[in-house]
Model the fold of this input.
Amino acid sequence: MRIPHSIFIGLLAAILAGCGTSDYDLRAYTQSDGLVGVHTIQKAKESETQAVAEAECKKKGKRRALFVESRTTVNDRFPLTNLYTCRD
Done:
């Protein structure tokens, strides 16, 4: 059985994209005071939450996200919220 070339390339791209993504579904939001919050779990790496916060800051026209604090939540799925401030 022969697999068409375009299907093979598509499957290979999907496999490689899956290897580079995080295992966690991190959620970013902007608070009324301008801070960016990232809902996370305890096993998530700081670099992963930082990247999600920087993506949210880029939407606001800023380049960097600086860590402010970490808070616990009552949410079972995301027990932590990391707060970041956006800077140029």
